[in-house]
Amino acid sequence: MASIMYNAILLFGAPGSGKGTQGKILGAIPGFYHSATGDLFRALDMNSDMGKMVKGYSSRGELVPDDFTIKLWTQHMAALVASKRLDPQSIMLLMDGVPRNPAQAKLLEPLVRVHRIIHLVCSDLDQMVQRMRLRAIKENRMDDADEKVIRHRFEVYEKETRPVLEHYTQDKIIRIEAGNSIMQVLQDILAALTPLKEAFDLTQEC
Ligand code: AMP
């Protein structure tokens, strides 16, 4: 059987830049599906060996190993397809939190056609730290509760994740100012994605 090829838009940016917030809203639009690796990891049983391993990395603000991450993501997507909750032909994925380094981008190449990269850019580090602190309380996230872990997450982003941008052709990357209000960021993303989404939906109707 030929392997599945997913169509996707990457939601890209530093921790606290709003990928999850925007992904959840956009994921409510028919034809989009929001998929966040962080959510997948948090849904694991934390008493299982897998859960304990993931918790070890995430509580230190480090990346979970690539092979495990991509395998978990691939299996999760395949299960959605098999149970008919997701039709890869007609759905545009909003990938949030993956790929997180160039090696993951390479592993995803045979599986994912990346149409656009929404790069949420926020120059105000303190604003993002503040967002993460609020999220730690609201969502009971240990990795965002500790200032030292938060700072380390930014270092990991700069060193390991940002180079992912070089993996794709620059005409696919759309920079959006992430320091603005949720509504403004949403409006900017919608303006950038509307022509692509409409063209993609038209190919489904033919
Ligand atoms: P997030 O919810 O995207 O901020 O992710 C929370 C934590 O989950 C990260 O700090 C990593 O430990 C782990 N994680 C999420 N996505 C990935 C990924 N693609 N690769 C490796 N680790 C990840």
Task: Give the helices and strands, then pairings.
Elements: E1 6-13, H1 19-26, E2 32-36, H2 37-42, H3 49-60, H4 66-82, E3 92-96, H5 102-108, E4 112-121, H6 125-139, H7 147-161, E5 173-177, H8 182-205
The structure holds adenosine monophosphate (AMP).
Fold and architecture overview:
By secondary structure, the protein is α/β, with parallel strands linked by helices. It is built from eight helices and five strands; from the N terminus they run βαβαααβαβααβα. Strands 2-3-1-4-5 form a five-stranded parallel beta sheet. Helix 4 (66-82) runs parallel beside helix 5. The longest helix has 24 residues, at 182-205. The protein starts with 5 loop residues before the first strand and ends with a helix. The model has no long low-confidence stretch (mean pLDDT 95). The protein binds adenosine monophosphate (AMP). The site of adenosine monophosphate (AMP) has 17 residues, from helix 2 and helix 3.
Name the features.
206 residues, alpha/beta, 5-stranded parallel β-sheet, 8 helices, 5 strands, 16% strand, binds adenosine monophosphate
**Major β-sheet profile:** 5 strands, parallel
What fraction strand?
Answer: 15-25%
Shape: globular
Uncertain stretches of 5 or more adjacent residues: none
Assembly context of the chains? single chain
Summarize the structure.
The protein is an alpha/beta fold. It is built from 8 helices and 5 strands.
